[in-house]
Amino acid sequence: MSPPASPSGLPGPPPLSVFIIAFNEADRIGATIEAVRGLTDDLVVVDSGSTDGTQTIAEKLGARVIHNSWPGYGPQKRFAETQCRHNWILNIDADEVVSPQLSAEIRALFAGGEPKADGYEINIAEVFPGEREPHPWGYTLAPVRLYRFDRGRYAESTVHDRVHFSGQPRIARLKGRIHHYSIRSLGDEIAKLNAYTEQQAEDLDKRGKTLGSWRILTEFPLNFLKAYIVRRHFVRGLYGIATATNYAYFRFLRLAKHMERRRLRKLRG
């Protein structure tokens, strides 16, 4: 059964909730919301205390804004899920923009009634400073972002945000892409990754996981190669060297902070 028509005669939005978690995203969240307004009648923004007017922008664009102090990535997304009215949920981050192709594909998915899969993987393509759209040969991730709430939930992890399903879920992949404007600048990326490595080191402690200290010698060079070659930062020329270096330093710093925590615990006895 197709969605009912709107007063304009155009098809109404599918029975789908969209949620976004945000913190100080006033410069980016407008484009994020504009790209999905036609996909939902239940747009939820969970804000963790922005001071730049993010909440006002989201409300003016029709979002239902809810405050929730930051508990970590997984718990924040689990909280956001519970605020959604529909069983089908699309999650996008505040620095991501759903492409017109993906929007049309999602509409078509619901046009014939209930989608057949329990969750749908969506290609997420990075857009770096100085680029208008993703590089055609750039690296993409494809996590589940569109899913049934009665079959899948975000994991509790404070540093990993992945949907976990019960039973044997049916997972399919959509062809359209989300454009990910992940960094505002190299400096912004360094600040963001520095904060993230603090959370990762703490998460390793909570899980009682120990990484070998010998890796301090290999973490940077191996992860530079991973970013530059495997994740194809090389397609961005000299700028790709800079972004690959940031990625490698982020992985190195995560390990260094983990090692330092163990060193300090040993000193305290």
Structural class by secondary-structure content: alpha/beta
| Oligomeric state as shown | single chain
CATH architecture verdict of the largest domain = Alpha-Beta Complex
Number of domains: 2
Q: What is the average of the pLDDT values? A: 92
Q: Rg to the nearest angstrom?
A: 20 Å
Strand content: 15-25%
In the CATH hierarchy, the third-tier topology of the largest domain is known as: Spore Coat Polysaccharide Biosynthesis Protein SpsA, Chain A
Q: State the fourth-level CATH superfamily of the largest domain.
A: Spore Coat Polysaccharide Biosynthesis Protein SpsA, Chain A
* Proportion in helices: 25-40%
Biggest sheet character: 9 strands, mixed
Number of strands: 11
Q: Return the string of H and E elements.
A: EHEHEHEEHEEEEEEHHH
> Number of helical segments?
7
Overview of the molecule:
GO terms for molecular function: transferase activity. Belongs to the glycosyltransferase 2 family. WaaE/KdtX subfamily. Residues 17-115 form the Glycosyltransferase 2-like domain. Pfam families: Glycos_transf_2 (PF00535). The protein is built from 7 helices and 11 strands. The chain is α/β, with parallel strands linked by helices and 269 residues long. It has 2 domains: 16-180, Spore Coat Polysaccharide Biosynthesis Protein SpsA, Chain A, CATH 3.90.550; 186-267, no CATH class. The strands form 2 sheets. Strands 1, 2, 3, 4, 5, 6, 7, 8 and 11 form a 9-stranded mixed beta sheet that branches. The protein has a two-stranded antiparallel sheet with strand order 9-10. β9 (152-154) and β10 form a beta hairpin. Residues 1-9 have low confidence and may be disordered.
